[in-house]
Design goal:
homodimer, 160 residues, mainly alpha, Arc Repressor Mutant, subunit A, two-stranded antiparallel ribbon, DNA-binding
Chain lengths: 160, 160
DNA sequence: TATTGTTATACTCTATAACTATA
DNA sequence: TATAGTTATAGAGTATAACAATA
């Protein structure tokens, strides 16, 4: 039974964490058959929006250590989704590009993401989803969360 | 700039994951000075609501492997927040209880949680927080998320 | 001397399965 | 023989720091 009056608890913050985790977990399940993980998707997305960027740039955008990026990029490159091209100005750095297959993968991911959202938000109609989006966006802006960048890239580990 | 018409993307599902992660991360930071982690808090909370339960029971409630529980319980017991008492009926099993210090810790955690929620939801007024809570609760119910049980107990690992 | 990307190392946390003591 | 809790082991993933090539 919920308290209707009195000192407010932290139900909302906990609900946010619960539902947010559920969203991440279901999404991870949905892309697993593509042999992709959420960080893979985040990397592909950022590269697609800023092609030619260096691994350094990518690390800054995602707040990831460059050394942690290497393994992800190796795998994406081996699978032909992403390319490391020599940088014209600096032979130390690599310019990152999506391959055609990488762009195709992003389209598939987009479709999967929409299905995922429909499943997750099945309890709400369109108007309610719009309401929810607006409220969450206000929090995200206030919390200085960069659009399209998941804060989990930084440190990892949620409950423990 | 947001698309006002056309095929919907998955912005809402991503926003939920972003804000949910932010909630979890900020909460973890807030309780870190108490030398507690979110799973510690989850355990204390469940025990407080069902004192006398066994480690087996606790594992089922949290969807955690019993072997994973051991280290958490060891630490909480050593710090005097939780007690393993002999079970009257079965000498194999332990009945879990909070100590007075454990109950005190939960009060502190409750205060911290409210501060946390106020910080996280600073962009919204009371009415808006109520709206948001209702919408999220509808999703949580539809997704069969148990009240007060974080789905992250199960498997862990969000971005990867 | 500083910087880009890579590799090496140590550490944390987990699931699985073996183990003990009771039942 | 089965069950409660514990311990052992191996694996996944990370941050940190050392490293080679280039600037």
């Amino acid at each position: 039974m919920a308290r209707s009056t009195g000192k407010p608890g932290a139900e909302l913050a906990f609900l946010l964490s619960q539902v947010g985790y559920q969203s991440a977990a279901l999404f991870a399940e949905r892309i697993a058959p593509l042999e992709l993980t959420p960080p893979d998707v985040g990397i592909l997305k950022v590269v697609s929006e800023a092609e030619g960027l260096s691994q350094q740039d990518l690390g800054v955008k995602l707040s990831m250590f460059p050394s942690r990026l290497v393994a992800f990029l190796d795998q994406l490159e081996q699978r032909g989704l992403l390319q490391r091209r020599p940088s014209p100005a600096d032979r130390r750095s690599h310019a990152l590009y999506l391959s055609p297959a990488g762009r195709e993968a992003l389209k598939t991911i987009g479709r999967i993401s929409r299905e995922h959202q429909n499943q997750l938000c099945a309890a709400l109609n369109e108007a309610e989803r719009g309401q929810l989006t607006k409220l969450l966006q206000r929090i995200a802006d206030d919390q200085k969360l960069a659009p399209g960048i998941h804060p989990g890239f930084r440190k990892l580990q949620m409950p423990r």
